[in-house]
């Protein structure tokens, strides 16, 4: 059959498999010409009119403007950020808690590639943006490749079918999990790199697995409810299972849309945080420690490595060095924080963003986001934690606010921060 939407019979048992034209089968399209006997098609992405989760329009993030003021073109980064926002605007409260294995309004594959495109443009300064559509086609091709792997044994039971999908992804295609959650292997955290190198984090493999299942559902090969089992250990692989046979113990392993986006961005934030000297504490405390906003009389044990790492991180920033091997990258960390704030999952993201802005010398913006954090925290219905780490964090927040207010009163430090050299030595005035 020659038409773009034609269907080819692949076996004597009337298995319907879509045949692609040279222009590629694109997942935003519906299967217009499925035969009447085929199961109904399912769209991956909803159309307009779906309830949207409101986003603030006056956040005025610092990263892109600061880079522009330093003579760095951020046009590709800004376009990628717009693409990311266009996707998360489709999130409703219900959608946020929906499993990634169920058809939904947000195209998670495209969203992940917008994240990669922005971060790539911030580092490469290339005149050509990351080809998002080309990598989406690669993801579609990966799904299409399963059709030749599908056989009679796969159709014998639901378990065999889902097992065959897993074997196709992890054995035939050779995708494997990387346990590295640091900058030693950052490519494991970006979808385009995972599709290229076939090694990725559990989050990225969960995304790819769920996208394959949704494409198979569109083509009528999957006609029952499935879930993706997300492993919380360091070595397990995400796998699909029949939702009808799920157990109570499976609930903590179900990955929702919000959880996937949040963990995807937090992995990047963790990997590129510029203050990596002590993973036992929170990221915020690591940065606050480097700025001397932690009371050393409270029994915190200081090590020579911890002190040296904090001093080295601060020294790099003062010299305008954004990144260093195994010591984070300020641009990536800031971009992850800004997207997490847009996602609106945790007020603490504004607090963490603020401490990074402080280290960059953007004091006015730092104070703004600290105040937003406090206002949001007060209006939140969540109970405040009283564990030792949270107490230390709130103490550091108060000290940072006092310090920023003192800076604001100093003459010459209230000018718009973005006009200063973001890469320069923006030290405090005393």
Secondary structure class reads mainly alpha
* Biggest beta sheet attributes: 2 strands, antiparallel
Portion of residues within helices: 40-55%
Strand order of the largest sheet: 1-2
Order of helices and strands: EEHHHHHHEHEHEEHHHHHHH
Strand content: under 5%
Shape: globular
Counted by DSSP, the helix tally is 15
Tell how many strands the DSSP assignment holds: 6
- Alpha-carbon distance between the two ends: 76 Å
Enumerate the spans where pLDDT stays under 50 for 5 or more consecutive residues.
Answer: 1-57, 297-307, 319-326, 415-430
Mean pLDDT: 77
Radius of gyration over C-alpha positions, nearest whole angstrom: 24 Å
Features:
single chain, mainly alpha, two-stranded parallel ribbon, 15 helices
């Amino acid at each position: 059959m020659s038409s773009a939407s034609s269907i080819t019979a692949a076996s004597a048992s009337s298995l319907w498999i879509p045949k692609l034209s040279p222009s590629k089968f694109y997942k935003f399209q519906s299967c217009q010409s499925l035969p009447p006997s085929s199961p109904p098609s399912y769209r991956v992405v909803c159309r307009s009119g779906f309830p949207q989760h409101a986003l603030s329009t006056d956040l005025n993030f610092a990263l892109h403007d600061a880079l522009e003021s330093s003579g760095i073109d951020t046009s590709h980064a800004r376009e990628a950020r717009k693409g990311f926002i266009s996707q998360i605007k489709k999130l409703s409260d219900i959608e946020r808690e929906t499993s990634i294995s169920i058809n939904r309004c947000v195209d998670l594959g495209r969203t992940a590639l917008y994240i990669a495109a922005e971060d790539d443009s911030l580092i490469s300064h290339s005149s050509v943006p990351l080809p998002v559509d080309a990598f989406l086609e690669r993801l579609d091709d990966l799904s299409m490749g399963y059709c030749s792997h599908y056989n009679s044994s796969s159709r014998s039971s639901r378990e065999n079918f889902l097992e065959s999908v897993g074997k196709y992804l992890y054995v035939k295609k050779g995708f494997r999990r990387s346990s590295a959650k640091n900058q030693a292997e950052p490519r494991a955290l970006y979808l385009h790199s995972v599709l290229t190198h076939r090694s990725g984090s559990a989050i990225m493999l969960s995304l790819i697995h769920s996208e394959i299942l949704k494409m198979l559902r569109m083509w009528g090969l999957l006609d029952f409810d499935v879930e993706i089992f997300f492993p919380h250990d360091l070595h397990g692989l995400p796998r699909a299972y029949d939702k009808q046979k799920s157990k109570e113990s499976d609930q903590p392993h179900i990955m929702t849309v919000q959880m996937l986006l949040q963990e995807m961005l937090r992995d990047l934030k963790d990997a590129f945080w510029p203050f990596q000297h002590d993973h036992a504490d929170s990221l915020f405390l690591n940065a606050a420690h480097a700025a001397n906003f932690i009371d050393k009389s409270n029994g915190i044990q200081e090590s020579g490595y911890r002190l040296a790492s904090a001093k080295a991180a601060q020294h790099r920033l003062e010299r305008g060095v954004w990144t260093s091997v195994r010591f984070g990258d300020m641009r990536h960390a800031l971009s992850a924080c800004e997207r997490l704030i847009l996602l609106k999952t945790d007020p603490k993201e504004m607090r963490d963003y603020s401490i990074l802005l402080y280290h960059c010398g953007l004091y006015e913006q730092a104070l703004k986001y600290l105040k937003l954090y406090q206002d949001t925290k007060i209006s939140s219905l969540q109970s405040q934690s009283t564990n030792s780490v949270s107490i230390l964090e709130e103490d550091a927040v108060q000290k940072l606010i006092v310090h920023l207010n003192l800076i604001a009163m100093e003459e010459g430090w209230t000018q718009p921060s973005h006009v200063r050299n973001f890469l320069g030595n923006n030290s405090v005035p005393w």
